[in-house]
Amino acid sequence: MSDYGHELWFGSFVTRTARPPQAPVELAQTSKRAGLDLVSLQDRLGHRRPPPVRVRSSGRSTGRTGRRRERRRDTLGRKGDAQASGAYKRRQTGQTCSCGRQRPDGPRGPSPDLRSLPGQTAGALPLTPAQSEGSHLKINIVGPGNMGRAIAARALTGGHSVCLVHPDADRGRAAAAELEQRFPDGETGSATAAQAADMTVLALPYDATLEVAGSARGALSGQVVVDICNPVDFATMDSRVTPADTSAAEQIQQIVGTDAKVVKAFNTTFAGLLTTGEGHGFPLDVLIAGDDSAAKAKVTELISSGAMRPLDVGPLRRARELEALGFLHISVQQPLELNWQSAIKILP
Predict the structure, then answer these.
(1) Contact present, 165 and 175 (Cβ < 8 Å)
(2) Mean pLDDT of 102-121
């Protein structure tokens, strides 16, 4: 609100018209008629002339104002140099200030590279199978769709073997052949049912995930089961279909029994960025939740070896929040025009 608005609100609006200052010509005429000295009259009315300025050969002004400005510049320059030198020495010795107190973590090191995150090496995105280290995993990926093939690409990047599972044998073989062309040194196969393996990734929609978990319960016994689904009501795109006191991952754990260990992962990532394992110059964050530490360690190995960053968010019940986060990430794609090229990143 303007000043006028404030004055009107309190009922004390006053206008004043300032008289414009007289021009030098008018002052000269007035002083001549009155017999006054023009310079003294101008001084009284605020029209003081600046003092003459003499210029040396160096180009610096030598008038009173100029000399004061030069002295101030020289003083500030010497002070600034001293401060800069002292700050540099304090940084090198680990001191926080001129009083001599030491930094608790010692001398300041180089600025961290945000791409050099736990489990990653700056400038090594993505890793090749020969560069990755860790245990070799045999992985079933049920559902060789966009997400299934993207996870398979990360697994092959990490040097693991992959079996693409689809009831249609031709579709499974076609997906495996595509991956073999991209990763000629990798171990890729296909099957119509889940095989004996270290891990099975259910890369399926919510309803199909529950169905496969029930039908393949025996084959999944003793394995780590990775659930990636988001139980979204795709008819309305306005809610989830699971009750508030549970999650899809917890439901799958009840179906497969205690012999299989369910881990929630990959539900907050999209296939486009997952194919390369990074987005906008940073490794993808993959949030995981599970009750079994050994199972989460295997999923962590899969993620880390695939040039991504695993983040353990807690027990399997945290899958409720992960699924809510996945639903939010999906729902904002159209209004924000993200085109499925966004990623959820937690900065350290």
Answers:
(1) no
(2) 41
Residue showing tokens 């929630």:
264
Tell me the pLDDT of the chain averaged across its residues.
77
Q: 3: which DSSP letter?
A: H
Q: Are 136 and 298 in contact (CB under 8 A)?
A: no
What percent helix, strand, coil does the chain show, rounded to 5? 40, 15, 50
Distance, CA of 166 to chain centre: 35
Q: How many angstroms separate the CA atoms of 132 and 67, rounded?
A: 68
Q: Is 99 exposed, middle or buried (0-12, 13-18, 19+ CB in 10 A)?
A: exposed
The angle that helices 146-157 and 293-305 make with each other, rounded to 10 degrees, is 80
What kind and span of H or E run contains 202? strand 199-202
Residue 200 pairs in a beta bridge with 140, 225
Mapped onto helix, strand or coil, the DSSP state of residue 57 is coil
Pair 220, 194: CB distance under 8 Å: yes
More confident residue, 308 or 108: 308
